[in-house]
Amino acid sequence: MKNKTKNFLIHLTLITVCALSLIPFLWLLSTALKGRSENIFAYPPVFIPHDFTLENFKEVLRLVPIIRYVINSFIVASATVILNVILSALAAYPLARMEFKGKKIAFFAILATIMVPFQTIMLPIYIITLKLNLIDSYSTTMGYLGLILPFAVNAFGIFLLRQAFLTIPREIEQSAVIDGCNSLQIFYLLLLPMIKPSIALLVIFTFIGSWGEFLWPSIVLTNEKLFTLPVGINNLSSTFSADYRLVAAGSIVSIIPIVVFFLALQKYFIQGSQEGALKG
Q1: How far is CA 133 from CA 4, 126, 145, 219, in A?
Q2: Is domain 55-274 classified as CATH 3.40.50.300?
Q3: Domains of the chain, residue spans
């Protein structure tokens, strides 16, 4: 009886939290689907539109190059994900599987960077970006690089993959050495496939973080053709004089790729978040 009561309370709490988390999204979706004749600020809020319409989405797609913003965001997010996976794995492998002088100092130094907010180092990074001409006024390619390279690797990715590498028994690696595999073959053909869930988790977090990044693109971008989705949606509010129906429609469009991306990789999410949790 106690276990049933406990499970009931746990599930009730989870359902309540989920419902509260969904309310802002439902209001956003409802606003995007309401016609001009309906008051979007009605109290109490009306979540089911009486004047249902898709015109807000059509208007956004017609007047704003939102598809271009989506493509720009996809290019930046995809490149950031690829670089994060490659560089994090290359840094995590020696920290987990090799012995060298200063290994612990290097690892803790990398972890210490997690405590440094990006805003505190944004100015020197911006100056470096300007010095290297990694801005959109120089060329389109350099503009993309200016958005991607500052986020090409981070301490979280290195830590996550290091913990995943530590869960793999060394006997497997030793057997591969006996079979004649070198370090590169062991890394690429043996160990990387064994930590796919953790890689998928890193991909999810990196993609979502890059897709929703607003501060840095809003600083370095001046060419509207290179605007990412968050910057474009921010300009959307001023373009339409704060027409919240159109802003909500644009926001829904920006959310859809993230939802699809997460659903495609959700089977790895729980497994990847648990992998390495018990290994220090």
Answers
A1: 63, 10, 10, 14
A2: no
A3: 1-53, 55-274
